[in-house]
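This section describes the prediction task in plain terms. A model, or a person checking by hand, is given the sequence of a single protein chain and must write out its three-dimensional structure as a string of tokens. No templates, partner chains or ligands are provided. The sample shown here is typical of the held-out split.
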Amino acid sequence: MISNHEIDYKIFGEELQFVEIELDPNETAIAESGAFMMMENGIEMQTIFGDGSQQQDNSLLGKLFSAGKRLLVGESLFMTAFTNVGQGKKKVSFAAPYTGKIVVFDLKELGGKIIAQKDAFLCAAKGVSIGIEFQKRLGTGIFGGEGFIMEKLEGDGLAFAHAGGYVIEKTLAPGEILKVDTGCAVAYTPGIDFDIEFIRGIKNWMFGGEGLYFALMTGPGKVWLQSLPISRLAGRIIRYAPQMGGRKEEGSILGGLGNLLDGRE
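The expected answer:
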């Protein structure tokens, strides 16, 4: 078995981050289409089907199947490989798509596999496999906030994901339970049991504003949680968008009066 490329990295920024990856000669990083920010001269960019990992079937049918699986987890059909073909170390950078944090997964230290929310993947060392993971329970797939299909990152190298707001990593002991908003679970190790629990009390789910279900995460293992799911952020933006009946022009007196009259102040 061929190991993943061993890349070095540095993360810049606070709320809007980017990751700078340093490649030795002939080392390669793979990234989601559209994540590229900048690179030094001497790095060659190539668009590829699938993830370019050793786990991928290199036949045409195998490549199409691998690329098709990525569509199921919300990723694009193509990926981009960045290879240092020059002399000495070269750097390439990838940017987060919205406000939040870049999460680093050292798959070698995490048992070789991470299960993540759809659209989480940003970039990785070549050799990391990006696949699909099906929810084991019918109720979790329907009401768990992530659907039946999640993203699976496998290998022994570094993988980078992006999540909204602040990200916290928690380690759960065997049998330890954590109740989470269904949209706040970013990723977890395979030892975590991911289920749902109905919120008790009619007043809680009618007026509490938190939905009908908790995500129930039971140890042992690690979980990564985000404070601002993209769905929650998008909902607030739509609420205040002008075409959706949002706020009047901020700088005008009539706009301010209009906001008072329609309850937006």
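For orientation: The domain at 8-244 is CATH 3.60.160.10 (Double-stranded beta-helix).
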